[in-house]
Amino acid sequence: MSQDKVRILIVEGRFYSDLSDELLRGAADAITAFGAEYDVVTVPGALEIPAIVAIAAEKGGYDGYVALGCVIRGETYHFEIVSNESSRGLMDLAVRKGLAIGNGILTVEDEEQAWARARVSEGDKGGGAARACLDVVNFKLGQGE
Question: What is the active site of this protein (predicted)?
Fold first, then answer.
């Protein structure tokens, strides 16, 4: 891209808003530490995230994308559908369109696991997803090794 700063779009599913806030904090910290800029788009849940990434990529203006959200196993098969399809959608976009996407959608058994992975002071999966995205961006821009 022909701009000075790397621009990242964070797309966050807000189904579990407190967890989303923590994931976003980690991602924002990582992107800021890198010296990049970011925008945030919120959607209801994980299944909407790939569509927003696809639309944003089509419009242009971003070097990479960070997907944030949480899917907690319940009593029905819905967990598998949401987990598998959101991940598949993001992977398809990354591979087919060559997009830099960091996947920070947590898929966990319970809320305790979710918090252990989301907290910046513990798992920092939001920050990890942002750093993964930025690594791919660096490679795409010819700055990787």
Answer: 78
Residue 3's φ and ψ, nearest 5 degrees, are -115, 160
Domains in the chain, CATH or no CATH each? 7-140 (3.40.50.960)
78 catalytic residue (yes or no): yes
Positions at the binding site for 5-amino-6-(D-ribitylamino)uracil: 15, 46-48, 70-72, 103
Q: What is the pTM of this model?
A: 0.94
Query: What tokens were used for 100?
Result: 């830099």
**In tens digits, what is the pLDDT along the chain, a chain of 145 residues?**
445 799 999 999 999 999 999 999 999 999 999 999 999 999 999 999 999 999 999 999 999 999 999 999 988 888 999 999 999 999 999 999 999 999 999 999 999 999 999 999 999 999 999 999 999 999 999 865 5
- Which listed residue (78, 80, 88, 144) is catalytic? 78
What's the number of CA atoms in the CB half-sphere (13 Å) around residue 92?
Answer: 11
The H or E element containing residue 82 is helix 78-97
